[in-house]
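User: I'm writing a short methods note and want a consistent example. For Response regulator, I'll paste the sequence; you return only the structure tokens, no commentary, since I'll be parsing the reply automatically.
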Amino acid sequence: MSDRPRTLVAEDQYLLRDGLTHLLTAHGFDVVAAVATGPELVAALREHRPEVSIVDVRMPPTNTDEGLQAALAARREVPGLPILVLSQHVEQLYARELLADGTGAIGYLLKDRVFNAEQFIDAVRRVAAGGTVMDPEVIAKLVAGNASDPLAALTPREREVLSLMAEGCSNAAIAARLHFSEGAVGKHTANIFAKLGISASDDTNRRVLAVLTYLGRS
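Assistant:
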């Protein structure tokens, strides 16, 4: 990721689109395009190949799932292309599909649950760096849609750790939230990987695979 990540904003509401553009610019992002429709988003993704894109779900012309469809198409063309979905709605099917390739660099936040600029900018930076950031309400709806529980072997504490991992928290952040040491988080994380049958790899990929299992995707 460059010092000024090349960023795309896709939002049909002018005031929100303009506000996001100014906010991102003020925090060191280079906004290379700000678009209002699904077709414009597809064209801008192909033209600019941004380092991170903030994408609304429901955009013209259909005002249904134009944004997510464009994001999925872009990820098929460029695996791992960083996308942060910013929406008023949880589209379970498409959220799962975005997560399904296991490469990370995906976020899904709900507009009415972004409470300050620091929270939002931190999420954008984490997605741009290849991380996964999920609003807890999105996680809850995805998990609620699962017919089976692949996590039966995990202890309640391991489930807590995995839930925070799904939100995109680092080991240090998890330790702070649960009030124990990073070393303890590391042990819980290792146990989670072992119980879910996730073999040794780099930690970023293992975390993504664990999160996918948590959300019901193998």
